[in-house]
Write a structure and sequence with these properties.
44% helix; alpha/beta; Rossmann fold; 292 residues; DNA polymerase, domain 1; globular; 14 helices; seven-stranded mixed sheet; 7 strands; binds S-adenosylmethionine; 15% strand
Length: 292
């Protein structure tokens, strides 16, 4: 959704931007290319993404700075800096999926799934050491349907599960009757990955911080891949606009007056062509907000 990102950020107009999710650097590069005056600070909690960006840093000398940070640490790392545009493209990168780090159900290695390889919680911990009820909530919230309860039972019976291949086998044994075109392991792996990386609390931290790091008339653009994330972003942007008619999904003080304008009441979605080229984009939803 590169052209939508650039347009919603107003990147062609020039300015300084924060890409909170550097990943493979595709959006960072596009922002730098959109205007030769653009400056980008690009953050990620994955050190391998930062290492791969060294080439970009030298190519765009003086215009790109990279920063190791998760969303919940950004406040202390940015020390009061504000930006014209802030982007977060949530979820997992292609490099992570292809890196034999346990993100893909086609991997054969250990159950890991950590975006930050120094984090203490791994998929092994979540799969093998989480109580049945908590595991059920993780899977159910993650989008696993009516099989969630049976899947918990199967996981508990198969413990300790050491590898991604074994986990995928257990999931497929439960969901073997599924008519969905998705591999039955897709949603369960996503749910476990989101728990390993605290992805919803991290998003909550970013939404809490956003009004402090986006400049007057600057924009926040967020791409989500999960309905819970999209609901959280939409609810918060509606609250900021001052038109909240639904209870807040997340804790935190509501603004007393409007903070700006919600630009995408209807989420922007990838084109059919983009989904054909990159099937992982099928669930992407882009939302944008302009601060007053
Ligand atoms: C979908 S990829 C971003 C792809 C990138 N926009 C590109 O064009 O290549 C998401 C990236 O965000 C990072 N990420 C996800 N949640 C994060 C968080 N809470 N804090 C910091 N980085 C995060 C992941 O490590 C991953 O590299």
């Amino acid at each position: 959704m590169q052209s939508e990102v650039l347009q919603q950020l107003g990147a062609e107009g020039g300015g300084d931007f924060l890409d909170c999710t550097l990943g493979g650097g595709g959006h960072t590069r596009a922002i730098l290319e959109a205007n030769s005056e653009n400056q980008v600070t690009a953050a990620d909690r994955d050190e391998s993404a930062l290492a791969r960006a060294n080439e970009l840093v030298s190519q765009y000398q003086g215009r790109l700075e990279v920063l190791k940070s998760c969303f919940s640490d950004l406040s202390s790392k940015l020390e009061g800096r504000k930006f014209q545009g802030v982007l977060a493209d949530l979820g997992v990168s292609s490099d992570q999926l292809q890196g034999q780090r346990g993100f893909s159900f086609n991997d054969v290695g250990p159950l890991d799934m950590r975006m930050d390889e120094h984090a203490s919680k791994t998929a092994y911990e979540v799969v093998n050491n989480t109580g049945s009820q908590e595991l059920y909530v993780i899977l159910k919230n993650g989008g696993v349907g009516k099989e969630a309860r049976r899947l918990v039972q199967a996981i508990v019976a198969a413990r300790p599960i050491q590898t991604t291949a074994k986990l995928a086998e257990v999931i497929r044994s439960v969901a073997c009757g599924s008519k969905s075109k998705l591999d039955p392991a897709t949603l369960a792996f996503q749910a476990i990955r989101m728990a390993v990386n605290d992805e919803l609390p991290e998003l909550q931290a970013l939404l809490q911080l956003a009004p402090e790091i986006v400049r007057h008339q600057g924009r926040l653009v967020i791409i989500t891949f999960h309905s819970l994330e999209d609901r959280a972003v939409t609810a918060r942007m509606r609250e900021w606009q001052g038109g909240a008619n639904m209870p807040a999904l997340w804790p935190g003080a509501l603004p007393t007056s409007s903070l700006g304008k919600f630009l995408t009441n209807k989420a922007l979605r990838p084109s059919e062509r983009e989904v054909d080229e990159n099937p992982r984009a099928r669930s992407a939803r882009l939302r944008a907000f302009e601060f007053a």
